[in-house]
Amino acid sequence: MAEELDRLGRRVARRFIARGARPSACEIARNMGVQIVEREEPPPAQRGLRSEYRPDPPLIVLYRGPIERLAARVHIDQRFDMMNCDLPEVHIAHELFHHIEAGGRFGALDIEQVERAAHAFAQELLGLTFHPAELSHIT
Q1: Residues 11, 118: contact at Cβ < 8 Å?
Q2: What is the mean pLDDT of the segment spanning 30-53?
Q3: Stronger pLDDT, 49 or 1, i.e. the higher one
Q4: Could you check whether the bond before residue 57 is cis, i.e. omega within 30 degrees of 0?
Q5: Is the pTM of this model over 0.85?
Q6: How far does CA 28 lie from the centroid of its chain?
Q7: Which of 130, 82, 98, 77 is nearest to 34 (CA)?
Q8: Is there a contact between 48 and 66 (Cβ–Cβ < 8 Å)?
Q9: Alpha helices in the chain (DSSP H)
């Protein structure tokens, strides 16, 4: 099942990649009418949250504080494979999948399944050499 979810995420991402050119997740979101906003910190009850998708109206919220702390941790841990990526863009790509799949477009998936597919989507869309789920293990 995990492999199928990875394939789903990669397949959806490839729809946006034309002739090897990878558009930015910000650009795709803008073209789809999804607004991106930044906030300093998430609500106190969700301290570990780095980003989220809100469907009505379509909105991706990036939380700068947790993303900056993650970036510092990436450097401390010397994760060279992660150092050159744009962490906000990784989070936008992940949340963008939630926008695309909103309303059960890919069938009945539980939250863990959607998260797995969203990670694979971000990895493929951005050409990452690491699986985005690894970011959660660093913090």
Answers
A1: no
A2: 95
A3: 49
A4: yes
A5: yes
A6: 13
A7: 98
A8: yes
A9: 2-14, 25-31, 64-76, 80-83, 87-101, 111-126, 134-138
Helix/strand/coil (H/E/C) assignment for every residue in 20-57: CECCCHHHHHHHCCCEEEEECCCCHHHCCCCEEEECCC
Q: Region 27-43: what's the mean pLDDT? A: 96
Q: In angstroms, rounded to a whole number, what is the distance separating the alpha carbons of residues 87 and 10?
A: 19
| Tokens found for residue 14 | 């490839």
Q: DSSP class of residue 107?
A: S
CA angle, residues 48, 49, 53, in degrees to nearest 5: 170
pLDDT at 69 over 90: yes
Q: Which of 93, 72, 89 is nearest to 138 (CA)?
A: 72
All domains in the chain, ordered by first residue: 2-138 (3.30.2010)
Closest Cα to residue 119, out of 35, 12, 24? 12
Note the pLDDT tens digit of each residue in 96-111: 999 999 866 777 778 8
Asked whether the beta carbons of 123 and 109 are under 8 A apart, the reply is no
